[in-house]
Amino acid sequence: MSHATPAATGSVGDPFATTEIATREKLEGIFNDIKSHPLYDHEIYGCLNCGICTATCPAAHYYDFSPREIVQLLITENLEGIYDAMQEKIWACAQCYTCAARCPFHNSPGGLIMLMRETAIKHGMQSAKDVLKPFTRVLMKLITTGNQLAPNMITPDAFADWGPNVARIKAPLNILRKAIPMPTMHTLDTAWEVNIKTSIELYTIWEASGVLEQLETIDPNLFDVVGDLMDEKRDEYQEWLDEQHDAA
């Protein structure tokens, strides 16, 4: 049984790999989206290939990840390598920006990785979907309450990577929070109370900035839920405005 080579099929990639084989057109489109980003020219200037960024990178000590590799792939316009790095490696970055602080050329590998992550989301890459899936609950909390995290979400199961320190969150939070003078803090369901006007302003920013459009690419079902909640809150706020107008 013979296997067609990437050159014969017009695609690039390992035909035996678990990741999808991308066409040349797709690879070029991905790179063009990265390079055309307004911040691209501010994050990359040149590279001596000195490796200082990788030597000081915390993630490089624990993962198959190298900031230097990312910069080299982009500078040399290695389309296949860029696509491969976007399957897993770019998600290892902790965004500490130590690389940017130490680079003698003033490159920002961390900034470049942010652009690559945005592009991965825009193109609906499976790596982006897999990485962002655990944050669904956090996003829903933000949508419904205006808070990213609530005390009742901090559980040992959810933060197993904390190691021995996870035991500290077993404190009687419901008792401790009653000592907080603000009445809105006497609950474990939310960190603080956010008024509806602020929530709607947040939604509006998401719409204008393209965040919701990216969400639709990554998780269409969650996008629909967010849209429904937005409509409900806007209707509720408009009713309140109408009541205030009538009262006046």
Would you summarize the structure shown here?
Helix content is 52%, strand content 2%. With 248 residues, it is mostly helical.
Task: Characterize the main sheet.
Answer: 2 strands, antiparallel
State the separation between the terminal residues, measured CA to CA: 81 Å
The average pLDDT is: 85
The stretches of 5 or more residues where confidence is low (pLDDT under 50) are: 1-11
Fraction of residues in helices? Answer: 40-55%
Helix run count: 14
Write the layout of secondary structure elements.
Elements: H1 6-9, E1 11-12, E2 22-23, H2 24-35, H3 40-43, H4 52-55, H5 67-75, H6 79-85, H7 98-102, H8 109-122, H9 126-132, H10 136-145, H11 173-176, H12 196-209, H13 211-218, H14 220-247
Antiparallel strand pairs: 1-2
Helix pairs in contact: 2-6, 5-8, 10-14, 12-14, 13-14
Keywords:
248 residues; mainly alpha
Overview of this protein structure:
Helix 10 (136-145) packs parallel to helix 14 (220-247). It is built from 14 helices and 2 strands; from the N terminus they run αββααααααααααααα. The protein has helices at residues 6-9, 24-35, 40-43, 52-55, 67-75, 79-85, 98-102, 109-122, 126-132, 136-145, 173-176, 196-209, 211-218, 220-247; strands spanning 11-12, 22-23. The chain is globular, with a radius of gyration of 23 Å. The chain has 2 domains: 18-123, Alpha-helical ferredoxin (Fumarate Reductase Iron-sulfur Protein, Chain B, domain 2, Orthogonal Bundle); 132-247, no CATH class. The chain has 248 residues and is mostly helical. A two-stranded antiparallel ribbon has the order 1-2.
